[in-house]
């Protein structure tokens, strides 16, 4: 069965919601306008319960099926934007300089709202649907906060599903895989403390820039020489700051970056090697080093049965040929991982077409994907919760 007729009918209305949300991007947990808009719509649809203030600005709505008792399925969308200045000039561009929806969370929210409207109208399922609108996915760990606040227990959620758009994947296609689908993330900040002095007399100094450069170069061996070539690991230094004059060797140098991996064991190895490399090189050069290592989001791990189920639902919407059930893992991070640690479920990607990449100032969610996403959510609920 292709996309639902009712989902196609809702396309224009849901696109309007999406474009409105795009104009009012908000960051992290500070989403007063976004969460208020979401809660208002859910109440207008006639949801049986609309709970606000979860993880500060998160919203959870409950829709009861009309076909009797059953389990509760959670369906999640993220709501926050990114601190990026929008480059596009479309009519619905961001009204807030320096903030934009560069990851499509406006589209995720709108699609789940479209599904909420449909499901509240039809209620053609047994049990309950929990619609989860989450703040602070972009680094704030809002998914973890919702779980820690007891969301799963409070609403009796038995299984949980998430969806994210993917630029480059054609509109109307879906992709997923069982097991690790997105990486665990970690961030590090390393301060090398040397001895500053005149740049013309480097022998009287302990140059932190030279030492930091050696550390950056040595980090490249963590992947190439310390890790099994079959494993997935990224170690990237993304910042290096030191000094402010041509003729002065500074006292300190600071470098920072990220680690991405698909296995806990590899993550532990990378952390261990980063400490060993920094401490060893610093000691060899007569310097000291401070290491701030923050293990962030865990691996987004799709449960086998739920991933097969999600793929089957996507195939009903798009056809078998349009569903990739063995996509390569993505080394980006995702805090839906916390929800998948708390409950069985699956995370799926939906095609956004030939658009700018995620986190790019020229990105915009493709509204042509909306009917496909709404149809997926509706079919997922109705199939998972039969009479």
Supply the key terms.
single chain; 387 residues; alpha/beta; Aminopeptidase; Alpha-Beta Plaits; 8-stranded mixed sheet; 4-stranded antiparallel sheet; 11 helices
Overall description:
The chain has 387 residues and is an alpha/beta fold. It has 2 domains: 5-182 and 299-384, Aminopeptidase; 184-295, Alpha-Beta Plaits. The chain is 35% helix and 25% strand. The protein contains 11 helices and 16 strands. The protein has an 8-stranded mixed sheet, sandwiched between helices. Helix 3 runs parallel beside helix 4 (105-122) and helix 4 (105-122) crosses helix 11 (370-384). The protein is elongated and about 80 Å long.
Regions with little confidence, pLDDT below 50 for 5+ residues: none
CATH architectural type of the largest domain = 3-Layer(aba) Sandwich
Order of helices and strands: HHHEEEHEHHEEEEEHEEEHEEHEHEH
CATH topology value of the largest domain: Aminopeptidase
- The helix/strand class is alpha/beta
Number of strands: 16
CATH homologous superfamily caption of the largest domain = Zn peptidases
Any idea what the shape is?
Answer: elongated
- pLDDT average, as an integer? 97
Largest sheet: 8 strands, mixed
Q: How many domain regions? A: 2
CATH class of the largest domain: Alpha Beta
| Beta-strand percent range | 15-25%
If helices are DSSP runs of H or I spanning 4 or more residues, what is the number of helices? 11
Fraction of helical residues: 25-40%
What is the alpha-carbon Rg in Å?
Answer: 24 Å
